[in-house]
Amino acid sequence: MTEEGASSSASQTIAAVHGDQDRSEGTDSPGSSDSHGNQPEPGHPVATAARVPAQSEQGTRDRVDVRMPADGAYLSVLRTATAGLAARLDFTLDEIEDMRIAVDEACAMLLSQAIPGSDLDCSFRLGQDAMTIRVSVRCLAPQVPADDTFAWTVLTALAGSVDAQVGPGDVLSIVLRKSRDSSRSV
Description:
The structure is a single chain. The protein has a six-stranded antiparallel beta sheet with strand order 1-2-3-4-6-5. A hairpin with a 3-residue loop joins strand 5 (161-167) and strand 6. The chain has helices spanning 3-9, 75-88, 93-111, 150-159, and strands at residues 16-18, 62-69, 119-126, 130-138, 161-167, 171-179. By secondary structure, the protein is an alpha+beta fold. The chain is built from four helices and six strands. The chain is globular, with a radius of gyration of 17 Å. The longest helix is centred in the middle third of the chain and has 19 residues, at 93-111.
């Protein structure tokens, strides 16, 4: 494989939407084109964000969606995104590190059940003082992780609030919610 081919196959597109921006551009769904009319190449991972928050998300300032191969080799991308987005909310260094570890642990739980060759989807919702992260993957026979295990207890301690659910299409999701410590002044 040429250097150019290796670089294009590993490329990711990450887009973020801020509260007042026009959300009509930038949505990448299968068969759609980007704002330049380019079609995504088949088999290339694409991360997108650009949708109007639903009524239940009105407290959401920003939303960032990342899609990448369901492979542990790519988890550093999510850890870095988590740290950067938590820093935007003025989380402490300890809170940022807790969320990086929590995302990594949640992904490890999901990857053990992922269909080989599938994608891992991660959605970050940034509120005024809180961050919600949903990581999801398609599974053959999804099993919600038990909430009475040591791993789940650690995950809850790191993230604050954790939930797992199986959705349509055998998609297993873990949702992490972390609020900034309200006892400190900003």
